[in-house]
Amino acid sequence: MYLTEREQRMLSGEEGYAVRKSMEILVALGDIYGADKLIRVGSVQVAGVSYHNLGDAGLEFLNELAKDGKVKVLTTLNPAGMDLENWRTLGISDEFAVKQNLVIDAFRKMGIITSCTCTPYFIGNLPRYGEHIAWSESSAVTFANSVIGARTNREGGPSALAAAFVGMTPAYGLHLDENRAPNIYVQVNVILKTQSDWGALGYSIGKKAENRIPYITGIKDAEVDELKSFCASVVTYGAQPLFYIKDITPGSETQSPPKEKVTIEENDLKEAYEEINDPVTDIELVCIGCPHCSIKEIAEIAELLKDRRISLSTEFWVATSRLVKQVADKRGYTEIIEKAGGKFACDTCMAVAPLKGRFKSVATTSAKGCFYSRQNKMATRMGSLRQCIEAAVSGKWN
Ligand code: F3S
User: Fold this and answer.
1) Residue-wise over 322-350: b if at least 16 C-beta within 10 A, else e?
2) Which residues lie below 8 Å from residue 105, measured CB to CB, with a gap of 6+?
3) Largest separation between any pair of C-alpha atoms in the chain
4) Which atom of ligand 1 is nearest to the CA of 232?
5) pLDDT classification of 195: cutoffs 50, 70, 90
6) How far is 143 from 16, CA to CA, in rounded Å?
7) Cβ–Cβ < 8 Å for 6, 14
8) Which protein residue's CA is at the shortest distance from atom 2 of ligand 1?
């Protein structure tokens, strides 16, 4: 990979340890994937924030980099293992909280904005169409590539951090036009009614597309929250963090439909629900906000929970970014949700919080949430927001 004189100096350590380490990572990646140069990135989003996943070795790695590492571009974080303010309310141990705070301190030292969210585009980390970025969180990467039309590979935590310290990333993969062309045509022959239907659609398309980029037709309309849900699901059950929906997402007007064609019928969606749902009726946790809730979703939750009461046998969590919650506070939604017995899980999520062994079952609107909850040994139920609220109030899935 070609390096400018300045880049060579960074690689030789002239700009310190963190920059040298970062250049080593970026050059290795560039060589593996055949990049010819580094390109500037407009922003970075770093995953690998939960102490639950990092452990002490990860914390040590971050502390080493934080000694002299300072990010060169706008950089935000993916969810951490706990709500950074109200972790006790969510049943997190003091021991875990101490370690998680050390992780956040290390990121803060690096100049990173420690807003921990997988929907950074709702809180100011919003790239423009065509902008090169280096993001890690798979649902956010898919949203950035497909809904915004920015350009990013799915970075690992270390490679995203490296891009932040250098302000650049190797030009390969989804940064290049030739790798962004769709290669499977998906005709959708179903009407989608709820956000969980979008999750089920993501499951079906992800499974059929495998490692190919879908060009999707048959969808007449889509709200941002529905696309957010679809992004999380299609990349979890498929592989590529990029899709086109004709007349809805950017770039679909210039791409041609690929020859190979598959269809999505009612039966596919039914199968997706059957695969994602376990035959469990007692629900111990209901979690909404995978990916993190928008203010519109929180307003809907408040509307459905008004003057109601969550079952004593169930916890109800709303996962969102702290900034979006602040808007919910001002609008009075927080008060309604908390009065009903619900809790906010800011900065964190159902996949990265240490939940294994705490709940046996979970209900959610999110297909991705179900995927990760199963890894945490929970039985899963996916349904509409209304179904999830009813489950929270009755403690049962009907
Ligand atoms: Fe976000 Fe966690 Fe879901 S990172 S997409 S809430 S699994």
Assistant:
1) bebbebbeeeebbebbeebbbbbbbbbbb
2) none
3) 65
4) 5
5) very high
6) 34
7) no
8) 349
- Distance from the CA of 292 to the center of ligand 1, in angstroms? 7
Beta-carbon contacts of 303 under 8 Å, excluding residues fewer than 6 positions away, are: none
Closest CA to 232 of 53, 376, 369: 369
**Looking at ligand 1, which residue's alpha carbon is closest to its atom 1?**
291
pTM reported for the whole predicted model: 0.97
The candidate with the shortest Cα–Cα distance to 255, out of 177, 148, 188, is 177
| Domains located in the chain, CATH noted | 5-177 (3.30.499.10), 181-275 (no CATH), 277-394 (3.30.499.10)
- Residue 313: phi and psi, rounded to 5, are -90, 5
Distance 314 CA to ligand 1 centre (A): 21
Give the up-direction half-sphere exposure of residue 312: CA atoms within 13 A in the CB hemisphere. 0
CB-side neighbour CA atoms (13 Å) of 369:
33
345 CA to middle of ligand 1, Å?
12
Residues near ligand 1 with C-beta < 6 Å? Answer: 78-79, 118, 137, 139, 232, 290-292, 319, 349, 351-352, 368-369, 372
Residue 150 CA: distances (Å) to CA of 130, 189, 286, 371: 4, 28, 33, 27
Nearest CA to ligand 1 atom 3: 290
Pocket probe mutation, ligand 1, options 135, 236, 349, max atoms within 8 Å of Cβ: 349
What CA–CA distances, in Å, run from 323 to 57, 116, 120, 292? 30, 10, 10, 11
Q: What is the pLDDT of residue 77?
A: 98
Q: What is the pLDDT of residues 28-84, one digit of tens each?
A: 999 999 999 999 999 999 999 999 999 999 999 999 999 999 999 999 999 999 999
Structure-token pair, residue 283: 């629900």
Closest of 265, 344, 351 to residue 298, by C-alpha: 344
Closest CA to 264 of 238, 285, 288: 238
